[in-house]
Amino acid sequence: xxxxxxxxxxxxxxxxxxxxxxxxxxxxxxxxxxxxxxxxxxxxxxxxxxxxxxxxxxxxxxxxxxxxxxxxxxxxxxxxxxxxxxxxxxxxxxxxxxxxxxxxxxxxxxxxxxxxxxxxxxxxxxxxxxxxxxxxxxxxxxxxxxxxxxxxxxxxxxxxxxxxxxxxxxxxxxxxxxxxxxxxxxxxxxxxxxxxxxxxxxxxxxxxxxxxxxxxxxxxxxxxxxxxxxxxxxxxxxxxxxxxxxxxxxxxxxxxxxxxxxxxxxxxxxxxxxxxxxxxxxxxxxxxxxxxxxxxxxxxxxxxxxxxxxxx
Length: 312
Ligand SMILES: [Zn+2]
Known about the structure:
Elements lengths: L2 H13 L6 E6 L2 H16 L11 H7 L6 E4 L8 H4 L5 H8 L8 H10 L10 E5 L7 H12 L5 E7 L7 H4 L3 E5 L6 H5 L3 H19 L15 H27 L9 H5 L6 H20 L3 H12 L1
Helix pairs in contact: 1-2, 2-3, 6-7, 10-11, 11-13, 13-14
The structure holds zinc ion.
């Protein structure tokens, strides 16, 4: 989902008092996403109307990284003292440094969070924690956080930011409302999240596969399954990932109407005639299953056969 729309959807759920207490956000730009999530926090805490130029007490505290009810947890640099870092929300100045960090988010940090959030919010409506690079939570730290997720307190809101769901601990994923914040969807390449070269190489092939699937062209089952070389496997994996992306765009468009006004997205949207979200989500899951099969074994035809057999 395009990040601006996703942000609006989350904010609306708060305006309508219909919000979740934990959000898991997958994104193609974790630093921009963190900035946006901090802004979501500011807007839901704001004492006035959430305007970006608001100067109310709460907005000022958040803009100055000084709101005791908003905590950002992220990996510690080896030299950092944990106590100093737990409150740190200086995104822009620190983001470069983050790339070189190799540590995890630790149980000590989570203990600090749980301790700080034991009381009611100090100045704001909610207490909000943001876990930056949530896939870097070590297992014990993640288990400690489950306390917040299993017995949600209406005053405590959590945001988990990751660049990949696949790396997340499933017990957290299953307890969150899931969003995708996608940045830079202003042309077909950014919409599909691929490069020029990848587009040249794979787009037509993938669209052909979409066409065959949509028209239920019976795929000729091949009995002599062909073992793939590493290179061939990577290529076919790419096509399946692109296929998943195309069906996800279709799905998101039906649910949120996000890509309707983008001329370049029509080709992708029109290629799929199904408009039923339950069918589309089943198909996305099936493609996922095949991607995971392909990662485990390297028999091309078994995977393609399965796609066609289970498609309808
Ligand atoms: Zn304000």
